[in-house]
Every structure is written in C-alpha cells, then in structure tokens.
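Try it yourself: sequence plus magnesium ion, in.
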Amino acid sequence: MRLSKMHLKTLREVPNEAEIPSHILLLRAGMIRKLVSGVYGFMPLGWRSVRKIEDIIREEMDAAGGQEIHMSAVQPAELWQESGRWYAYGPELWRLQDRNGRDFCLGPTHEEIFTDIVRNDISSYRQLPTNLYQIQTKYRDEARPRFGLMRSREFIMKDAYSFDKDQAGLDQSYDEMYDAYEKIFTRCGLTFRAVEADTGAIGGSNSHEFTALSEIGESEIAYCEKCSMAATVERAECVDAFPENNVARLPMEEVHTPGTKTIEEVADFLKLDKKQTIKALLFVTYDNEGKENGYVAAFVRGDRELNMTKLVNALDIPEHAIEFADEEKMGAATGCVGGFTGPTGLHDCMIVVDSELPGLKNLCAGACKEDHHLINVNYGRDYEGDIVTDIKTIQEGDPCPVCGAPVKHIRGIEVGQVFKLGTKYSESMGALYKDENMESKPIVMGCYGIGVTRTLAAVVEQHHDDNGIIWPMAIAPYQVIITVMKPDDEIQMQLAEKIYESLGKAGAEVLLDDRKERPGVKFKDADLLGIPIRITVGRGAADDTVEYKMRRDADKEEISTEESIKRALKTIEEEK
Ligand code: ATP
Ligand code: MG
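Structure, out:
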C-alpha cells in the first residue's frame, strides 16, 4: 500500500478527551475515529489490526474444536425474561422497541441466544459436546464509557459457549478454552495473567479473568509470590486473623466527638489506630420494579475498603439494585446519623458485618447520635449482624488465602474471561438432552469471552514509547514501512519500488511512504504508526544501500538492499 494513496490522517496534538496512551496513540495514528462517547469506528490501519486479532482468535478457537457462527446483535426481550436477566442486567442493557412496541435489546453477551439454539437443535447425548462461537459487535450502555476502546458502549467481542453432558465434560471444555486463551494472548504479544474472578451478571460457579498487566488497568489483582494464588480483588478471599483472644471486653461508653465525621477525624480525636474503629456504609436497595426495597448498613474495620462485589453477592441482589442511601431519609427510618453511624442502635435495616469484626474487641463506632461515638464496642454484646461474612477488599500484605504469605497487588486490563456456567441457563430456559438411559438432563454450559477491541488497546498500552505505537509483528497493520527520503529523486524512488515489489511478492505486508513530505514528518509518522520494520531509502540508494531499523530498537544500520529484504523476511517469519 502506498501511503500517498491511503486514507490516513495522523494528529500531532493529543486529543482533548484522551487520557491514556492507547487512546491517545490510536487516535493520533488515525486508527480509530470517535463518533459519540463510547462509540468508535476503525480506519484502514486500525481495522487491519482488529482483523489480525480476530484471525488469531479464529485459528485458536477452530484448533480447540470451536465452530464459528454469527448471530444477530438484536435480541428479543422474551429470551431475556426467560433467563431472568431482563431485570438482572440493569441499565447497561441497551433496550429498544420496534414500531409495534415489542421489546428488544442490543446484545451485551449472548448466553440466551446460544442456549435457545441448542435447546432447539440438541436432544441427545450423541450431539454433545459442542462448542459454538462468534466474533461480533456487542452493546453495553456503560455508566462511564472511557479510555477509548477500553470501556466503550459498542465493542467487538468473541464469545464462545460450550455444551456438555456433565460437569466432567464442562471441566474439560473449560480447560481447552483456558489453554486456547493462553495461546491467543501470547500470540497477540501481551504480558498477562490468568486470575480467579467473580462471576458477576453472567453467573455460574467458576471463572478466570485473563488480565493484561498495566498500570492504567481497571482490574486489581491480588497475587502471592509463594504459591500460585492469583485473583481479582473483588474475588480474593480474606483470611481473618483474631489477634486479641486474651483481651478482656471493657464496658461500652459513649464519648463526645464533635465534628468527627470521618474515620480519620475520629481516630485522630480519640488517638486511636484506624484498625480500632468500625466504618459504616449506608445503602438503599431496589426491587424488580425499581422501587425502594429497604436499607442496608455495612460495617468494616475502619482501615478497610468495603468490597461491593462481595456485598451484593452476600445480599444476593444485582449490582444495579443497590446504591448509597440518602442519609437523612435513611436516618428517619433507621436511626442512623450521617458520619456518626454505628451498628449499635440501628433499627429497621439489614445489618451486614464483615467477618473480621466479631473477632476484634473494644472497637470505636458511631453512636447513631450527632457528635457522639461509642468506645469499647464488642460483637455479640453490643451489636449483631443479620449477615456476617467477608465483605472487605484484600489489601497488600494481608495473608494469602491459600498459603498465608503476604499478598501483593498489581493492576491490569481484563481482556478475556471464562466461566463455568453449569446449568444456570439450561435449567431456566429448558435446554435438555436425553442421556444413554433416555433420562432428561440439563445441558452443562460454559461461556468464554474475549474483548477484541479492548485487546487491541491493551497491546498498545504494553507496546509504545513517547513517539508512538510499537506493534508486535503478529497484529501490526503492516509489517514493513519503506520511507523514501526524496520521492522526487528517481534513483531513490526506483530502489524503493524494487524493495516494495520484492517484499510484496514474498508475502510481506508493506507500506511505501512515497508522500511528498519532509523526511522529519515521515519519520515522525513511521514512529507514531509503529510498523515493526523500517527501511529508509535515502542518499545511499546510489550505492544500493538502505537504512534498516526495527521500531523497537534505537539503533539503525546501513546495509545492502538485498540484505535488508532478506532480514525483513526472516524477522517477519520468526515473529508473525
Ligand atoms: P468489565 O468488568 O471490564 O466491565 P465484564 O466482566 O463485564 O467487563 P465480560 O462480560 O466478561 O466483561 O465480557 C467479556 C470481555 O469483553 C471482557 O473480558 C472484556 O475484554 C470485553 N469487554 C467487556 N465490556 C467491555 C467494554 N465496555 N468495552 C470494551 N470491551 C469490553
Ligand atoms: Mg468479565
């Protein structure tokens, strides 16, 4: 492809809305184009890289026994009502009606559709197992679309669904997908970790997220260097230590603590460690129709973070059915007092106590009275929970839930997730098969997603420098760029054409920068676009020499034209 003919517009300036490198660079390199918030289009170079990722995914999915199909993005509400997710999925589900007022949604994922296919097509154990997948556009009306392709409202996903006779079959299908995912992300050039994850709105028992390591990632992983434990912080279990077994319970006392609304303020005022305090978080919940359903007060140790995923799991409600309460309104109903709420003296609300608190003695908590706290508060005697369970987020240094060594945290981008769904959908939607004894059984399912466009962004996060993108060969839009210093110079242009032709004939994907621009502009663009191999044709053309440079390396070399072609083809072969 000749750059002079390509529809390409690169930007010198950093676009206003972009904050992270991948978003900035994909926009600056003219690879993506924003339409509205969270909705992007792909320009020629960007689309080539998307298709390369898709091809890698196809190859590995096919090799693992998957069969590609393609379902509609438009899905009828009835299927979602059958599975119970028309409500459970919440406002992220992009709903629409046809002209007759019939409800539909734009698919955020396709469990219902694929379950519907197999319940119609599969009746016997002889037809199992099977694995169907598609690469398709998904829609999620995200509350905060951001970071370009990372969290968009329209994005490309590969979603696969496995159907097995029993749990053992599912375990095998899951392992095969897990292995395929490792191959896919390795081929895309990502440094990643597979970690245990929560199952969220998708449901099921078991799940792993594939997380590309990156400081800007929205996933936080807790991992252990001593054993192989690695889990998202939403998921990672906290092991409670009970260090104060021999401490006597002191009598509870009310103390005057004027103006100390935060944990920091009260700990400072009473000269306590935050670990000796109880933090309250107040919520209101909603029912299926979106009506207020009651209040929840959650309590964790003062230095802890409440873990919303664990809280909604404990309450067995969807994430969108709970939000922070209006303290005044809640106060009138339950006796809580903003900034001074503790578990003692609350009424008419669900009290959820973190599992660590019952083991800790003589804590300080709000007194449910303006400007007052209680000290020497003890579980059992002074307060109780309707639910007592782990609702805190694991912190760095907390004991590993598997081996007890201190855990570490690291951030990353979730690029894929695999789930053991079990029979959640086959039971609610009646996807049954007859086994060897003609007995009817629910099909055992797994589902497996990869964010194709998010993967593209994650690769750029891991492969760039101040000047631009540094594509790994396998998903680079082109493999070689030939930069001609002076396209008006006949010798230079002829040599460039010769290299362009030889490389092209040998199967390489080559860009020829034949634009009548200053060399400085061309070099800047070549760096920005991130094509892995650059061959510069300049003054040396008269002696049949060119400059050869890898985008990832700083140094360049003068070599013969023939050598440059040989080297480029060899590198492509090794790295593609
Ligand atoms: P997240 O936790 O980031 O919202 P998710 O867990 O809801 O994602 P899944 O339902 O597991 O996402 O979807 C499968 C894959 O689709 C994810 O691993 C991710 O790579 C991609 N994905 C999900 N939401 C988005 C989005 N808004 N924009 C781009 N890619 C997305
Ligand atoms: Mg996920």
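One thing you can check immediately is this: Residues 465 and 548 are 19 Å apart (CA to CA).
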